[in-house]
Amino acid sequence: MSLLPNSRTEPDGSAVIRVLGYNIRSMRDDTAALARVIRACEPDLVLVQEAPRFFRWRKKLARLALASDLVIVTGGATTTGPAILSSLRVSVERTEDVLLPHTPGLHRRGFATAVVRVAGARLGVLSCHLSLQKDERHEQAGLLLDRLAGLGVEHAIAGGDLNERPDGPAFRRLSGALTDCRAAAPWGGEHTWTPADPHQRIDAIFATEGIRVLGCGVPTDLPGVTGTDLRAATDHLPVLAALHVPAS
């Protein structure tokens, strides 16, 4: 497997960043293994799904951030699960937690969003976990695109657990408007579920036009990431992308 570019700042102020998407299953599994995987990926931004939502959820998420050498940007119970973590390289301009329309009988969903700066690059960020129900999921994909456009920035990324494969209507709605980072520059593994038997890609990272994808996939062979930790950490495999974001 080729090396994934490290984070860096270019002379023109543009930034190469690492973005990790990860469903952490409410930290119900091996949190030490989870932190080791995240640390080894050396992300600038982590788009979390299924962050802790109940008793002492803030403390649990804070412990994970500390163990992963990161800080909390936004999200958690306030978005019903999606959250954003970042390295200290990232400067946060603003955040907003968004609750989506609720369908009775289904789990309520939300978006964790932020506008951040890395070096001279300004970037919108959105973490999502779409519905298990097909029609609602498709509608939420449209709401995601609207929310991303509403951040008012030239460059933006979105990622999360889509609960759908690339040939599904919600996934295609997103990939029709945004760059599917894995499809643009395959790197590492493809399938994100399940860790014990990876057989489908239902987690993804997307980017707006102008962001160059340098590599994206499951970090199966990244130094410091072991199969044992990936299987112990949670019930999804993470998606790691290296992206070049132009200076604003």
Automatic annotation (TrEMBL):
Q: Do you know which SUPFAM superfamilies this protein is assigned to?
A: DNase I-like
Q: What keywords were assigned to this record?
A: Endonuclease, Hydrolase, Nuclease
> Where does the record place the Endonuclease/exonuclease/phosphatase domain?
22-236
One of this protein's Pfam families, by short name? Answer: Exo_endo_phos
InterPro entries in the cross-refs: Endo/exonu/phosph_ase_sf, Endo/exonuclease/phosphatase
The organism's place on the tree of life at top rank: Bacteria
UniProt-recorded Gene Ontology molecular function terms = endonuclease activity
Keyword Hydrolase among record annotations: yes
Q: Does the keyword Hydrolase apply?
A: yes
This chain's protein is named Endonuclease/exonuclease/phosphatase family protein
